[in-house]
User: Fold this.
Amino acid sequence: MSETKKNGSSVAITALSVTGLAICLYLTAIYYTTDGAGAYCSGGWQCNEVLNSKFSKMFGYPASLAGAIGYAFLSVAGAFGGLRKNRALIIGLASTGVGVSAYLSWAEFFVIRQICPFCVTSAVIILVIWILSVRGADGAKIGAGVVIAVVAAVAGYVSAEMSEDSPRVSQNVQNVMMSKGLAQHLKKTGAVMYGSFKCPACIMQKKIFGADAKKLNYVECHPEGKNAKPDLCREKNIGAFPTWEIKGSFHKGAKTLEQLSKISGYKSGRQ
Assistant:
């Protein structure tokens, strides 16, 4: 690889590392200051379930802390010496990150079945850094990097098995399982939620269902809302948001999953 390309890759590695560092510092701060319950994720993403799970811990510490340390070293290695002087170190650090990120991504998609956009973004960043670091490297360095990645992934698995989910995530996982069945039940039985996109309680109600909120029969009452049906809301005499219409009765205010289950006659495990 020419010196010009090396310099360009080093600059890119530094910039990506700083970005990754910012993400990991944010997630680490959330973990220690809000017990993992304050990560801002919109659009139905379930960040907190991921961050509170045992898969996001390494030997008792948040994986984001290890990521922050790794990105900090990568930032320094990229800025001072770059690939020209620190290629082996950068490959080693990036390989470790790729291994851990691969394991965490597997856990997100196939075990927890909830996605944290911050985690996915970090995984993409470290993968790009790894590709830049091994481009033009000799086979021995690339092979060593692959071995390090595999070892890091195994270490991540072992550390997760030694950890436990926080009490919050245990409850959250139960809620996620419950919300799926309840949302299907409410839709199947014709239950309707009347609300407004400007209503904080309505937003909270949808967040309780997470991604399953899309399954609900929802009527937008605000004239400026998407697919709004204000005439139907007036016809139904909807005066508070949200209001649930279940089995011919109207129930005002946001409800917990347990309350909606009781009102609708939903029994967990069957619809």
User: Anything to note?
Assistant: DSSP finds ten helices and six strands in the chain. The longest strand covers residues 192-195. The CA atoms of residues 10 and 81 lie 8 Å apart.
